[in-house]
Hints:
- The protein has 209 residues and is of the alpha/beta class.
- The chain has helices at residues 3-6, 20-32, 47-58, 72-80, 93-101, 113-122, 137-144, 164-170, 188-207; strands at residues 11-14, 37-41, 63-67, 85-87, 105-107, 109-110, 127-129, 153-155, 175-177.
- The strands form two sheets. Strands 5-4-3-2-1-9 form a six-stranded parallel β-sheet, covered by helices on one side.
Amino acid sequence: xxxxxxxxxxxxxxxRGLAPGEAVATGRAIVDAxxxxxxxxxxxxxxxxxxxxxxxxxxxxxxVGAGTVMTPAQVEAVANAGGRLIVMPHADTTVIxxxxxxxLLCVPGVATPTEAFAALAAxxxxxxxFPAEQxxxxxxxxxxxxxxxxxxxxxxxxxxxxxxAPWVAAGAAGFGIGSALYAPGRTLDxxxxxxxxxxxxxxxxxxxx
Length: 209
């Protein structure tokens, strides 16, 4: 299940462009802010090396996996590197089934209710509403009226600390955070501060819920 990983802080760190040499320090800085789910997109440099380093350094208390997974062969490579999460930009049911067959959690990207229900039928553990810029909290609210209550939906794309509240009110269980959190070339301190800002914004929403 995905939910236990989201409970401490339901924000997924999307580390696109992360290089192996900075993986552990970056991962630790983000985990220190409260994040428990880290995703290395496969269009990053040597992504399987970064996944292996993060999984080894951060241990079983942090869910490390891959994003931008496009094929069953990539699912196998993620599993071999020690990753336990498959995140996709789309809802290819072949990839979802491969992830579940490998014993991995899977969060595919969906943009319509038809994709959402097909993904769930294939075994998806949660849904990535992507791109969020193309959707709206009103759309998510309509989805939540028909999707199973226990399925977490995570908007991804263009999310900032001050833009989360309307989505949460509409039923978002959390968010995937990309370039607003991490981008190649940023200092470690900058990334750590951004991680803390997101964590504080989430906890403030919880306090006022």
